[in-house]
Amino acid sequence: MADPLFYLVVAAIISVVLVLIIGIAGYGKGGEFNAKYSNKMMRLRILLQFIAVLLILAYAYLKGQGGQ
C-alpha cells in the first residue's frame, strides 16, 4: 500500500467527511456561523466530493491497467 495515489484518495475522502461534519455542526448550532458559512461549506463539500470521485476513478482505472 505504498501507492501515493491511494493516500491521496484517502486524504480527499477525509477532507470531504470533515467539511460535511463542520457543515452539519454549523447547521445544528444555527446562528451567525450558519447564516454566513452554510452555503460556502456546501459548495466546498461538493467541490471536494468531485475531486475525490475523480481520484477514486483514476485509482481504479490505474489498478485495472496493472499500474502501481
UniProtKB/TrEMBL annotation:
The UniProt entry's coiled-coil ranges are none
Keywords, A to Z, come to:
Membrane, Transmembrane, Transmembrane helix
Q: Which domain of life does the protein's organism represent?
A: Bacteria
Entry keyword annotation includes Transmembrane helix: yes
Pfam families documented for this protein: HIG_1_N
Q: Which residues cross the membrane?
A: 6-25, 46-62
Protein biosynthesis is among the record's keywords? no
Q: Show the InterPro entries listed in the entry.
A: Hypoxia_induced_domain
Which residues belong to any copy of the HIG1 domain? 1-68
**PROSITE patterns, A to Z:** HIG1
Protein name in the entry: Twin transmembrane helix small protein
